[in-house]
TrEMBL record:
Its EC number is 2.7.7.65. Coiled coil: none annotated. Residues 220-344 form the GGDEF domain. This is diguanylate cyclase. PANTHER family: DIGUANYLATE CYCLASE DGCM-RELATED, REGULATORY COMPONENTS OF SENSORY TRANSDUCTION SYSTEM. It comes from the Bacteria. The lineage of its organism: Bacteria, Pseudomonadati, Pseudomonadota, Betaproteobacteria, Burkholderiales. It catalyses: 2 GTP = 3',3'-c-di-GMP + 2 diphosphate.
Amino acid sequence: MMIKTAQAYELERMHALLGVSRELLQTDEVADVLALAGRAIVELAGAQEALLIVRCNGERVVAFDRRGRPLRADTSHPWYRIAADTLGGHGRQGTRGGRTMTLRVPAANAVAALAVGWDCDDADGRGSERRRLLTTILGLTVAALGKIQTRSSLEELVASQHEQMADSVRAHASELARRDAIEDEMRLVATTDVLTGLNNRRGFFVEAGQAFRLVRRRRAHSAVIFADVDNLKQVNDSLGHEAGDNLLCDAASVFRESFRGADVVARLGGDEFVAFTLDDAQPNVILSRLQDNLRAFNLMQERPYRVSVSAGIVECDPDGERGLRDYVLLADQQMYLEKRRRLH
């Protein structure tokens, strides 16, 4: 089960607030404004109950039930006094006992106050986040009600709120994109061989493992080729390790060019290379192509050494029980048989 990151949660919340803002902008009925506000309080903040007091050309008192439905209320409501004190500046905004929160907008010369309650204490520690969320909802609600009642200053208020939320959404989207880019770069570093630029062992088994499972489901042809660079130790001893590294890079280049773009090619470590190919050609054809490419490279490139590899290939049985690692080991064994045959 995928767990949302704090940034993803914040982005989702901002999108939801933008949706509420758009709906409030399109509404011309007080009942619709209150219904939207109640739904947002319950769905976005998880509240079980709330009381709203708005003082603008008179006083309006509205209660919201567990489903966010607005209900008529008056001074007899048990939360009226704490909400009225908060609105008048006589009561402090804040969380009361972890289950009730009061707030007002604007902070100075407030015109509306909201008291919100939950069935349990703030166990998830999101009190500050809920306060910001409810403050935004209350501000949007007051702006929408002000539009209906006075038909003035709505565009400036809501446009400002909308722009702030849009800026926040863009900032969070940019941050998520930056984090994704960093994660992609870290993943690439973790799965790439530094010397040759091919997949490393981890990258091979991740990428080839996915292709292997897909091939098996489709009952398609595939093969594993294991190759070992010849005479690397002699080159290191006689020409130095820099020349040995160059030999490995040359062998990697030829090995990569011998396969298609969809094939997975890797350096397992040292002088060992491996490839998983979906090529329909027979094994001897694949090996012949590799040797032809090596001969062509040695003829065209001037090097103080000759690039040569010993290779073994094993066809994968789509109906068999063996896994990818088993075929890599079998191809390794075939490579050693080929190397011994060539030496003798």
